[in-house]
Amino acid sequence: MRDTTQHAVRLLERAQSGDPAGALAEAETVLRAVTGDLVDGPACMHFVRVVAHIAQTDPRGAIAAVEPMLVAAVREGSGGWQACALASRAWQRLRLGEVDAAEHDLDGVLRDLVSAEMLAAGETDPVAAVNSRVAVGIGYYELRLYELVEPQFRGAYEMSAADCGSNGNRAMWLLNLAEMHLRWALELYQVHRADEAESHTAEAERHAVRAAAEVSGDDASVWRDNALLYAACARADRHDPAGAAADIERYTARLRERDFTPEALALSRPFHAVALLRSGHPEAAVDVLTAAVELLPPDADWLVSASTHRTRAVLMAHLGSRDTTSTLAYGDSLAAALWRQRLNTLHAARTMHDLAVLRAQHEQVARAADLDPLTGIANRRAFDRAVELAAGRPGEIAVLLVDTDNFKTINDTRGHAAGDEALRAIAAALAGQVAPGDLIARLGGDEFAALLAGADTTAAVGVASRMVRAVRDIPDCIATVSVGIALAPGAAVRSAVHRADIAMYRVKRHGGDGIEVDPVPALRPAA
């Protein structure tokens, strides 16, 4: 599976570096190789499909690809890949909502992101863990919830660094952090919170400098220039504005020659103008922003567009223009409204997250109440409730009652600590023989029980036989088990529990270490 995951990592990089169609085709080939049906393939390859559709600006295709990915991730028990699916669906729904009001569903987006964040927190596989945190971070980024973005990108960087580079270029997450702090600063400047804005440009510089030192791979020189551009932008409103202006000009020119992403270049222009103004070149600053306004496409990022126009208006006012007053007043009121909207969304996200945490804690407490603290399997309370539920359902149920032989000898000769260790080993041996949907429980003392839904006599005998052999094979343990079996329709499951108990005691009277099916005479597994 690790090889498949690393294959997916390579395809994700390919999908995001200019060949999404090729990555998509190769991922679908891998997915169909399992059974011929895409759904039966691994979740990591489904994520390649999702990302390839995103890279092709196909939000509906990405959302459709999320559904089979969720099925695969649940099948694999992977919270990380589930988180990737939910978070990707969330921010693709945001993109759809921007162009189609009927698709706008902020509550649904937040629910997906909060659920994804909870799932990502428990992921241990490094590749799934990193990708899930990045996906959640991007979702919150789209909502401008910078406070929630930062821990996701920081976690992705730390995990990538610890995973010795198998998660791709870890410096990318530092670049993401630098860009996030620059945008956060721009938004704070819009609402006249300059001191806070400067604290974020300081953070942006710290992350950008680290990114420049850590970039690697075939495109390292391009990403290093991008990092140094962000570091220069971060100095524009603080120390060395003249040096910042020169560096911004130098690195934008180098990146422009390589057809680098226009978003990064557009983000730099308001900072370039501020650096020029603060180093005594206001006319040059106006020229930069005048050109920047002309270069803005109709669908330009709203924050970069607003910052470009507002910074130009501030500069014109600084130079004595009286025509900028109304423009600045309108821009300030719009920025204040957007900031309030952001805070309202942040409050909603945090409230939803707190409720999800509380719900998870309650569920954990409820699960703990159903678990035997010594062995970690279900307890008598859980077994009794399962019997009650089975009594109301159709279909046949097999009941196995299991009693430990020679357990008193262990306690008497080796002590209670050894007895507890033996019970844990016996519980693990028994639990290893039942299917995921079946129940194994400790009823108390050295007695256990199992409920096998839909099992016939042959299947129940097979499980019981494996249980007997598994306990025999426990190293340095003299205990064996006696297993009684009874089958009944769900409505009669309580009588089956009683009959299985009688059958178990018949095994014990014959010396134990075997099985018996009620009312069939004793059966014993092969030696």
TrEMBL record:
Molecular function per GO: diguanylate cyclase activity
Q: What is this protein called?
A: GGDEF domain-containing protein
Which NCBIfam families does UniProt cross-reference here?
Answer: GGDEF
Q: Quote the Pfam families the UniProt record gives.
A: GGDEF (PF00990)
Q: Which PANTHER family match?
A: DIGUANYLATE CYCLASE DGCM-RELATED (PTHR45138:SF9), REGULATORY COMPONENTS OF SENSORY TRANSDUCTION SYSTEM (PTHR45138)
Q: Which InterPro entries does this one have?
A: Diguanylate_Cyclase, GGDEF_dom, Nucleotide_cyclase, Rev_trsase/Diguanyl_cyclase
Q: SMART domains recorded for this chain?
A: GGDEF
CDD domains linked to this entry:
GGDEF
GO BP terms: namely: cell adhesion involved in single-species biofilm formation; negative regulation of bacterial-type flagellum-dependent cell motility
Query: Which Gene Ontology cellular component annotation is one that this UniProt entry carries?
Result: plasma membrane
Cite the GGDEF domain residue spans from the record.
Answer: 395-520
Q: Please, which domain of life does this record's source organism belong to?
A: Bacteria
